Amino acid sequence: MSLLPFKKKAAEEPVIVSPEVEAFLDGYSIEVMPRTAGKVEDFRTLLPKGTRVYVAHIEGTPIDEMVATAKRLNDEGYPVMPHFPARIIKDEATLADWIARYQGEADVKQALLLAGGVDKPHGDYHSSMQLLDTGLFDKAGFTHLHVAGHPEGNKDIDADGSTKNVMEALGWKQEFSKRTDASMALATQFCFEAGPVIEWADSLVEAGIDIPVHIGVAGPAKLQTLIKFSIACGVGASLKVLQKRAKDVTKLLLPFEPDQFITELAAHKAANPDFNIEKVHFFPLGGIKTNANWAITHGGASGVPVSQQ
User: Fold this and answer.
1) What are phi and psi of 238, to 5 degrees?
2) How far apart are CA 110 and CA 102, in angstroms?
3) What UniProt keywords are attached to this protein's entry (predicted)?
4) Is residue 96 part of a domain?
């Protein structure tokens, strides 16, 4: 059974939980920032036990706030995966200090390594590969190291619109995955159209990239909010899904929900168990509570937050 896309649900109307979607949402992760996390009184009322929580490190956020947020989440029982944006890390001493603080104060064992959304590096690093190549994460015993995936390419990396440099970087990361003890995955930017995502994921396998994919999904939000974030984050081809909907006056004021995108990917995964998209990673652009409630009602971790377990 499938979920109907873009259907406004009455408060009393129960959501029909698809077994395929429930299986696809199993082990989903979600992203927060110190600022947004501070608005949540207790994550245990929102997230299922064991939910991985990424902590985004935006330029200008003090490391003290990042570590405090990671500690708070860890204390509430969630595995934490902070961002390490290469371009805002000054040097190896700074990187080593961040790793030591995360581990010593917040028991962090996971990290998302990425270039970071700034044009000019603040110091010695400009790519996640340089961070990995320091060997500091392996030396510290990190259990999970995730890197960025780009289903629609990345013009910061390939200005000509190709995927040449992106694929070369993925080839390097594929080789790195063979010599690290950490589990690796590609955490992608959010997308809105399943077909091109499936084609991209299959193309990785054809290129010999077997790092599992955690597909980025924009949580429920106002259409205008999603379009704004999509443009700011460089979301490309699938943005047309939002633009097409924006032309329909009857849908313009309704919240956009990822039902169709998730349902199509879940169906493909059910029909192709070896499909390399293994997990869902939510970007709660419409708010953490809104996103968490959507996941719960659609069967994420059997629809039970920690407070009800």
Assistant:
1) -75, -5
2) 10
3) Oxidoreductase
4) yes
- pLDDT given for residue 159 in this prediction: 59
Alpha-carbon gap, residue 73 to 145, rounded angstroms: 19
The stretches in the chain having pLDDT less than 50 are 1-12, 247, 249-250, 252
Number of domains in the chain: 1
Q: How much is the pLDDT for 127?
A: 95
Q: What pLDDT score was predicted for residue 249?
A: 45
Decide if 115 is inside a domain. Answer: yes
User: For residue 158, what pLDDT is reported?
Assistant: 53
Q: How far is CA 149 from the centre of its chain?
A: 10
Residue 169 has what pLDDT?
93
Q: Which domain holds residue 259?
A: 19-302
H or E element, residue 218: strand 213-218
Q: C-alpha distances in angstroms, 147 versus 128, 173, 186, 306?
A: 7, 8, 5, 28
Please indicate, yes or no, if residue 6 is contained in any of the structural domains. no
Number of H helices, E strands in the chain: 13, 8
In contact, 216 and 152? CB cutoff 8 Å: no
Rounded distance, CA 54 to CA 188, Å?
A: 13
CATH number at residue 35: 3.20.20.220
C-alpha 113/C-alpha 78 separation (Å) is: 19
What does the pLDDT read at residue 150? Answer: 87
User: Measured between alpha carbons, how far is 111 from 101 in angstroms, rounded to an integer?
Assistant: 13
> Is residue 107 classed as helix, strand or coil in its secondary structure?
coil
Helix axes 92-106, 63-75, angle to 10 degrees: 30
User: DSSP labels for 20-48?
Assistant: HHHHHHTT-EEEE-HHHHTT-S-GGGTS-
Whether 136 maps to a domain, the answer reads yes
Instruction: Let me know: does 276 contact 206? Beta carbons within 8 Å.
Output: no
